[in-house]
Amino acid sequence: MSWYISPDEIISGIRKRYPTEKLIGPPQRPIAPRVTYANENLYGVMIYIYGEGIKGQYLRHGYFDREGKRYWAIEYGWVTLYGRMYDGKILPLVVLGVPTRFVFQHKPAEFVGFTLEEVPLGYLECLERQMINVDRVMRGEDPVLIIDKYDLLRGDGAPVPSEFIDRMIEQHKLIATLQNTLWEYEKAIKDYKTTIAMLQARVAKLQELTNSYESRLIKLGTEVTGVQQELIRLREEVLVRGAEAESLEEARRKLRDIMDDLTEIVEDIAGWVSTLKRTVEMKKKEVESR
Question: Which whole-number Å values give the CA distances from 161 to 16, 19, 20, 91, 136, in the listed order?
Fold first, then answer.
């Protein structure tokens, strides 16, 4: 069973879905279209064909006339901008026209050079009028080139619904915004991981200091216990010395009392001796006078 869908089957399906539209015949393709021009305002712009989807990014285009009508032959593919750093790493900077997270993480001075890679996918043909917002893309107002290749939007000459274009542009901008938000989240997560690693290193250092301080505290506790025991011993010794001092003071007081008593006795004896001496002298004088 083949999964290949021929152009006739595609056209038949479109006819069934849009019965009021005019018949779409098989596209007449030149054998080798000349794609020679590259417009700087269109380069890298995403190409969306209504009814098919995203084809790729604009690379270059050429012109040709068929049945008096002007056609564009557009070569499309993928465009990626790479940057080579001084350490040899090659990083994707712009993919599908959208900057990657590396644009926000690195400065231009960190790159040695830049490389633009083109991957051609094919080419498509369309009438110039079928590029419904080419003017807005050229002015930089729309990031997606919408091509109504099968005139499904215009119908019988009806104007292109502006709501569809605005919705497409809004969705593309929303995708770009979500990508930028995702990159910011990734950058924030990386910063958080770096902060967590720094905090873990600090915690490890603090844990090491805590263990060191605990060892010192244990050592100081042992020393304090020894000092406390020494203080208790000195206190007991002071109490003993105090008791001895009190005993010595009591003995000194008793000796002082004894000395006072002896002094009084000596004074009494001295008085008695003086009295006796005077009495002897008086008796001696009486004897001599007789």
Answer: 22, 19, 17, 40, 15
Average pLDDT over all residues of the chain: 79
101, 183 Cβ separation under 8 angstroms:
yes
Q: Phi then psi for 110, rounded to 5 degrees?
A: -85, -5
Band of the pLDDT at 259, cuts 50, 70, 90?
confident
Distance CA 37, CA 212 (A): 74
- Give the number of other Cβ atoms within 10 Å of residue 126's Cβ: 19
Q: How far apart are CA 41 and CA 203, in angstroms?
A: 54
Q: What burial letters (b/e) apply to 15-26, b meaning 16+ CB within 10 Å?
A: eeeeeeeeebee
Query: Per the structure block, which two tokens stand in for 31?
Result: 């054998």
Give 146: exposed, middle or buried? Use CB within 10 Å, 0-12, 13-18, 19+. buried
**Does residue 24 carry a pLDDT above 50?**
no
Number of other CB atoms surrounding residue 101 within 10 Å: 19
Q: What is the largest CA-CA distance in the chain?
A: 201
Q: Structure tokens of 176? A: 């770009």
Residue 12: band (very low, low, confident or very high) from pLDDT cuts 50, 70, 90: low
Contacts of 22 (CB under 8 A, 6+ apart): 151, 156
Contact 81, 116 (CB under 8 A): yes
Q: How many Cα neighbours within 13 Å face the side chain of 63?
A: 7
The pLDDT of residue 268 is: 76
Cα distance between residue 185 and residue 189, in whole Å: 6
| pTM reported for the whole predicted model | 0.47
Contact by Cβ (8 Å): 40, 49: no
Say if strands 46-49 and 144-147 run parallel, antiparallel, or are unpaired: parallel
